[in-house]
Amino acid sequence: MGIKSFIPNRISNRAVIRFLDALSRCGRRLHVAWRASDGHAVANDAVIRNTIMDVRHEDADADGNYFLEEQKAYSGIAFGRTDMSYAGCEVIAVFNALRALGGRPDLGGLIRRFEKDGMVLSGRFGTSPMAIADFFSRKGYEVSHTFLPKEFDGIAGESEVCILTIYNDSRSIFCQIHTICITREMDGYVGHNLYGDGRPSGAYSSVSDMISAVGAGYAKGIMLIGIRYKEKNHTNRNT
Questions:
Q1: pLDDT reading at 234 higher than 60
Q2: Nearest C-alpha neighbor of 180 from the set 98, 62, 97
Q3: Cys-Cys with 78: which of 40, 116, 162, 197 at CB 3.0–4.6 Å?
């Protein structure tokens, strides 16, 4: 087994996520890249208005709410010391999950929030998935998570929406990690921003089937977060 496949196949999912979370907590304590965040906040809002909002969102509902599916086009939006095209998949997944839960999320606000609490290595390693779980818990949702792929389908079946983190290709860590939002539709599970090309992916009969379809079957699940309402008569929560 080569060094490229060592982490995906020899290091436990729990250890990988805990390591990312430790790095994010360190960055929060040291205020890493906070000045950069404050400096580009206004510019980001302008880019979001002028670029993302101009994209035609075929899935938009009657109120104009939509999912973000085009991560590859978001290179002009800063995230820490990198950009959303390179490292914004977790923030996009949070946006999409909030949208699925009935909210009207503010992308610029989410970027600023996770730059201050959750970003890993100034954004170069994206955002800690544990920071995402904590975010939804603080919003008042019931949140569960697992590092065991055999438990993914069970949690997905009990959740309103899920956030999934995977290795794009378990044969090489250099193919990186990706995080997406998964919604449960009438005809199955749909992955949002799975490929970042503007289209949702699916529907699939299960989360496991979705993972099997990625990377010619070489993708590997790392962590699944399940999110559901605590109370029966819920109210919408925004950012």
A1: no
A2: 97
A3: 40
CA atoms of 26 and 22, how far apart (whole Å): 6
Amino acid identity at 34 = W
Strand-pairing partners, residue 204, are 189
Quick: pLDDT tens for 16-58: 999 999 999 999 998 888 888 888 999 999 999 887 665 555 5
Give the containing element (helix H, strand E) for 196: none
Amino acid present at 224:
L
| Gap between the terminal Cα atoms of the chain | 44
The three-class DSSP label of residue 69 is: coil
